[in-house]
Design a protein that fits this description.
By secondary structure, the chain is an alpha+beta fold. It is 20% helix and 34% strand. The model has no long low-confidence stretch (mean pLDDT 88).
């Protein structure tokens, strides 16, 4: 059995051609999701890991508990007739394998105990937030607007126009059209500023979860490739942000709107 690797806030291990990823959190001996993770965000992280290890894997089957549109936007993978299978387990873990029988891999010795009260409150908050009748009182973003910018925001797809521009735009500051030139920003950067919004001061999209989390932290990040951006910290990030700290940008749940989970890039401190 191979070594367990920490990767983008998760645990990864390979055994007999099967790659497994798990939440680092457990409750009563069972892996449970962090406060803004799910099978979709873990699948994205595992595919990104394999893209470095093996190049982009050919995937033929994705478990229906995973939002395939989000995985494609974040990684660029498309399903093919033959290849790897992504299969969710009964706990907060999933496997990626080529053979039908995937060996069970254990992460128990590397996991941390989650706060049970906060965990249960967050689970219930996501259920309430995801209800179709829960309407945001803040800046409304339609499903069409969200879908149009999805690939750019999840995969950090930028444009080359004298310099790298991200997120993608139709025109530059002078009104000149920006062509179709594309480039990907590396998901690393440095904190240049940060703030923590109190539970009462958080945008309405986070009004249900912010009181449970004790507020919402955001960081201004100067990426290693140049563009700047403002990102939420991952909700289960335990480290306090500091100017000059290095971060990695990962995909996590942002909020729910119109009964649908919205995903985006968040920062975890390295």
């Amino acid at each position: 059995m191979s070594k367990v690797h920490s990767w983008q806030g998760y645990l990864i291990q390979e055994s007999a051609g099967c790659y497994s990823i798990s939440s680092p959190w457990q409750l009563n001996g069972k892996a449970v999701f962090g406060y803004d993770s799910d099978y979709t965000t873990m699948a994205i992280s595992l595919i990104r890991y394999l893209s470095i290890e093996l190049s982009l894997p050919q995937i033929c089957n994705i478990d229906n508990q995973i939002v395939e549109q989000i995985v494609y936007a974040a990684t660029g993978i498309e399903t093919v007739n033959e290849g790897w299978t992504v299969s969710c387990n009964s706990d907060a873990s999933l496997d990626l394998y080529q053979n039908k029988s995937a060996p069970k891999i254990g992460f128990e010795n590397h996991m941390k105990e989650i706060n049970p009260d906060i965990h249960h409150s967050i689970v219930n908050a996501w259920i309430e937030e995801s209800h179709e009748k829960n309407i945001s009182q803040g800046a409304y973003i339609s499903q069409q607007q969200y879908n149009e910018s999805l690939a750019s925001r999840l995969s950090l797809l930028a444009q080359r126009h004298n310099k790298l521009i991200w997120p993608q735009r139709q025109m530059d500051v002078t009104g000149q059209d920006i062509g179709e030139s594309k480039a990907y920003i590396k998901p690393f950067g440095t904190i240049t500023s940060w703030t923590k919004l109190s539970a009462a001061g958080a945008p309405s999209e986070f009004a249900i979860r912010a009181p449970i989390l004790g507020g919402v932290s955001t960081v201004m990040v100067s990426t290693t490739d140049g563009p700047n951006g403002v990102f939420l910290l991952a909700d289960d990030e335990e480290r306090t942000p500091e100017i000059g700290k290095s971060v990695e940008l990962v995909v996590r749940r942002l909020y729910a709107q119109e009964g649908t989970i919205r995903y985006g890039a968040k920062a975890i401190i390295r």
